Amino acid sequence: MSAITGAAMVAGIIGRPVTHSLSPVLHNAWIEAAGLNAVYAPLAPTADGFQALVNGLRGGVIRGVNVTIPFKEEALAAADELSDRARLAGAANLLLFRADGTVFADNTDGLGMLGALAAQAPGFDPRSGPTVILGAGGAARGAAAALVLAGAPEIRIVNRTFDRAQALARDLGPAVRAVSVEAAPAGAGLIINATSLGLGGGPGPEIDLAAAPLSAVVLDMVYKPLRTEFLRRAADLGLATVDGLEMLIRQAVPSFEAFFDQAPPAGVDVRALALRAVGETP
Ligand code: NAP
């Protein structure tokens, strides 16, 4: 392990709970392989302690942080400057602390999703047809924003709480609309589970995947287990699948670059490390 001295660059992740986050596993493996004098630490403030923590970190105390549940909306509000995709998503998963005391917010979740699609469904073009997003929380917003910016022609939001789907559609513009689960799959090019259904091995969202074209790609943001019930259902129908772990790894890459001014080193099998960390065989 490379030495961590008093001059170490510090980054981290803020969440509550943060104990099970895989981000420290990914970033610290890259730090070590790159031989950086740096550390990536988990930070879990109290439920109302996010703002105070961020204010305390201003002025270059720390390079930056990733932000996870339940603070992604608060992260946006805490920033002085926003990227277009963070503004459009209404949520941030990355805060960068500048030496002048200001905070810049970005959202790399959507980039992670597009990167995972490119890796596991090569040739898929998000501009080629309608996308269905199941869910209307922070992850759904990040995905919808990235797809709008990537030129997706139509995004259909399905959510248990329909009002939230409508609010998301209103915020993201004319390409995005709230639909019923029955109306969603016809003609879809991409179907995304952005709900927490399936986490821990339970059933995924109820949608008739057989009503989607055989060319449809199905992506599950849930990665515990890796092969969720939703992805197994899709694969059984012969649909291409993309897993949430690939998305998680891909969203970490631009964060690492922003924290440490360099790309993660090649040759580190972070997927195998992450799989071991969630108790799966690589
Ligand atoms: P969130 O803001 O809490 O949103 C949760 C969503 O799930 C909402 O749309 C909610 O619907 C829906 N939902 C929850 N329980 C449900 C149920 N029993 N039946 C139907 N719908 C239900 O969470 P998030 O931040 O968007 O994250 C969503 C999931 O994506 C999580 O599992 C998270 O771990 C995962 N994620 C993965 C990545 C990755 O890189 N792979 C990145 C971000 C998030 P209501 O609006 O009706 O409550």
Keywords:
282 residues, alpha/beta, Rossmann fold, 2 domains, 6-stranded mixed beta sheet, 6-stranded parallel beta sheet, globular, binds NADP nicotinamide-adenine-dinucleotide phosphate
Protein described:
A hairpin with a 5-residue loop joins strand 5 and strand 6 (103-106). The chain contains ten helices and twelve strands. The model has no long low-confidence stretch (mean pLDDT 95). It has helices at residues 23-34, 50-57, 72-78, 84-89, 109-120, 138-149, 162-172, 229-236, 244-260, 270-277; strands at 9-14, 38-43, 64-67, 81-82, 94-97, 103-106, 131-134, 155-158, 176-178, 190-193, 217-220, 240-242. Helix 5 (109-120) crosses helix 6 (138-149). It has two domains: 9-107 and 252-277, 3-Layer(aba) Sandwich (Rossmann fold), CATH 3.40.50; 110-242, Rossmann fold, CATH 3.40.50. The protein is α/β, with parallel strands linked by helices and 282 residues long. Helices cover 36% and strands 17% of the residues. The protein has a six-stranded mixed beta sheet, with helices on both faces. NADP nicotinamide-adenine-dinucleotide phosphate is lined by residues 69, 109, 112, 135-140, 159-161, 164, 194-197, 199, 221-223, 244, 247-248, 251.
